[in-house]
Amino acid sequence: MSFHVLIAGGGIGGLTLAQGLRKAGISVAVYERDRAKDDRLQGYRIHISPKGCAALHECLPEELYDRFVATSGKPNTTLGFYDSDFSELLAIGDPDAPEHYIDSFKSVSRISLREVLLSDLEGIVHYGKTFTRYEQRPDGGVRAYFDDGTHADGDLLVGAEGVNSRVRGQLLPGAERVDTGALSLSAKVPLDDETRGLLPRQLFAGSGFVFGPQGKAVFLAAHEFRTRSSVAKAPSGGLLLDDTADYIMWNIVTTWDKLGDRTELEGMDGAALQQVAFRALEGWSPRLHDLIARSDLGSVSVFPLKSSTPVKPWPTTNVTLIGDAIHNMPPTAGVGANTAILDARLLCANLVDHVNGRRTLLDAVHAYEAEMTDYAFKAVALAMRNLRMGVSASPVQRFLTKTMFRFFNAVPPLKRQMSASMMK
After folding, report:
1. In this structure, what are the phi and psi dihedrals at residue 202, rounded to the nearest 5 degrees?
2. Is the pTM of this model over 0.90?
3. Where is the FAD-binding domain positioned along the sequence (predicted)?
4. Dihedral angle sign, alpha carbons of residues 316, 319, 321, 322
5. Residue 199 and residue 160: Cα distance in Å, rounded?
6. How far is Cα of residue 214 from the mean position of the Cα atoms in its chain?
7. In 3-state terms, what secondary structure has residue 152?
8. What is the pLDDT of residues 228-254, one digit of tens each?
């Protein structure tokens, strides 16, 4: 049967879907507002879960999945929790666990992942196309309009343009995206022998959270490359978009009122934000201060943490949404990118069923939307729960959280149970 899918937006979810449809022999076109594939390089790494790896493996041709694995960082097999003096509260997982081709966590550069997802999509990805609106056609199709005056026709339109999705704005005008009142102040630090000695060994096999007083928390992770991307060539502007150098990432998560005036903070340069970080962690471990002092100033940045709110079921049409376009969430559960990849896998599988005559298009899309909104908004709720725990200024809640972690750390059967739950 003749069937063509339009995808507005070439982010992780949209490109994963395009790869899956192409692999299945389904006609697809991606319309991306960027002018070229390297216009939107993002410097930080993404944590891909075993479920995310399985979904990528299903959507990508074998050689591209091989490349994804080869360009990922060293395996993530642990998760640690620490007090502000860097004393261990809980460490789960095995730093010496073997890496599996699919069934293991992987740390991957956003630059490298984007390069993999764009591979072999020449003629499918159309650049310089900013989506403006859509209309349903009398023949049952859908037409997408772009700001350059052009349009494209297809049988299904998928909004994958991220948090400010115009497809969502037209399809679900009541879907809200809210400011959580929290922020992330983050930077990269070059990973060398000196900076390696500042952190516990566990953090070089995974990531860690440091819980401090007054509603502040720090997220830490190291990214050590095994092979290098061919897109970014160690740019002279610093470490932020350097896809050749190993680094440590730190993020201070708190609320704006804990750091100062929001407008002033958002206008600061890297050096000024570094001083804000020092003040925010006053009294914490000197090793954290030493780490912050070694930050690449061009990578120091602050950004608000926003989230979507659950949406009620809506009438299914030949227009749907994936990824941040429907379920934007703060990064405090580490599952945002994974959820977009799962969306792409599920929608692709349902569309294959439609093309093969096993279900109608509306049945395929409806089944996707019902399943997606269930697991995705559970992920949003988890991210928001973790965010509230991290920024809570309640001494009682902080004490109870730390006590719980220490208890699980001291009881091996409970620690194994918690490890199995959190590391899957």
Report:
1. -55, -35
2. yes
3. 293-380
4. positive
5. 38
6. 27
7. strand
8. 555 444 444 565 555 678 899 999 999
